Amino acid sequence: MIDLRSDTVTRPTAAMRQVMAQADVGDDVYGDDPSVNALEAQVAERAGKAAALFLPTGTQANLVALLSHCQRGEEYIVGQKAHNYLYEAGGAAVLGSIQPQPLDAAEDGTLPLDKVIAAIKPDDIHFAPTRLLSLENTHNGKVLPLAYLQQAWQLTRERGLALHIDGARIMNAAVALGVELEAITRYCDSFTLCLSKGLGTPMGSLLCGPAEYIARARRWRKMTGGGMRQIGIMAAAGSYAMEHHVARLQEDHDNARWLEQQLRALDVEIVAPGAQTNILFVRLSDTRAAALGPWMRERGVLLNAGPVTRLITHLDVTRDQLGQVVNLWKAFLAEHA
């Protein structure tokens, strides 16, 4: 099957599996797993942060990040369609009693800073105190500009807020901008990085930030059930990915842009701005949207089809396979004219 549903469907490569099989392990709850310790130190150093924490999932990493920034009854400003507001089952509100203040993102994925300023609550007993600005990079495949991040960072310094980046695909952002990770993460107090998307590991995310903050996050990880034992097998996969799978993200970006060009030639409507990284959105009529998913599945292609269909390239999809998808799309359009 050619699977374009998400980059979470990637499977560990043979080389990654070999590294996992040979990983040196210990009990991570006791701090004794050398592979976990090495991964945390590796990513923290790369990001220019004091410390990092390995967690099982991106959802838990974001939850722990918010719990470590905000107390009960406090507030974080976040995008209306941000993952840690819309797609994580309301965990911050349910488990942390943290109030979200969602804002509509601009077309480029940024949260307009004038709207952020207007949403910051005054020191008044009627309001939940605003403690945190949470950004997402990339946001629906859109890369937040460095100049914007610098402005958001300066704003939070002036207003006494912390700044967190949900960086599930932050390495895609770094590759797209042609910069090192630290060039992005210098403009945040904390960030998360997912290893199981474009980087191709079976599981795991990291939360990075100041040492005191990560110590607090480690306690929250325990309380939310995230203590792990001989997890160095997975941490070794993360270290391998950070060493060998970052630069190759450019291939995924190039493939997404190639797919965009081919679909444009078929008069498929591309949702602006097109493929900045490995994510492409196309717009379909309701009739075609209802038919496309089952039609493609019968022919060996998996899509999350809808009126706006997201297509994601990754290390398990080749250019030749995308060529097959284009040919099938052309046949589909001919049948559903």
TrEMBL record:
GO biological process per UniProt: glycine biosynthetic process; L-threonine catabolic process
The protein's name: Low-specificity L-threonine aldolase
Gene3D superfamilies with a match to the protein in the record: Aspartate Aminotransferase, domain 1, Type I PLP-dependent aspartate aminotransferase-like (Major domain)
TM region(s), chain numbering: none
Cofactor(s) recorded in Swiss-Prot or TrEMBL: pyridoxal 5'-phosphate
Family matches, as Pfam families: Beta_elim_lyase
Record-level GO cellular component terms: cytosol
Family to which this protein belongs: Belongs to the threonine aldolase family.
Record's keyword terms, sorted: Lyase, Pyridoxal phosphate
Every Aromatic amino acid beta-eliminating lyase/threonine aldolase domain range: 3-283
InterPro entries assigned to the protein according to its UniProt record, in alphabetical order: ArAA_b-elim_lyase/Thr_aldolase (IPR001597), Low_specificity_L-TA-like (IPR023603), PyrdxlP-dep_Trfase (IPR015424), PyrdxlP-dep_Trfase_major (IPR015421), PyrdxlP-dep_Trfase_small (IPR015422)
Keyword Methyltransferase: no
Single GO term (MF): L-allo-threonine aldolase activity
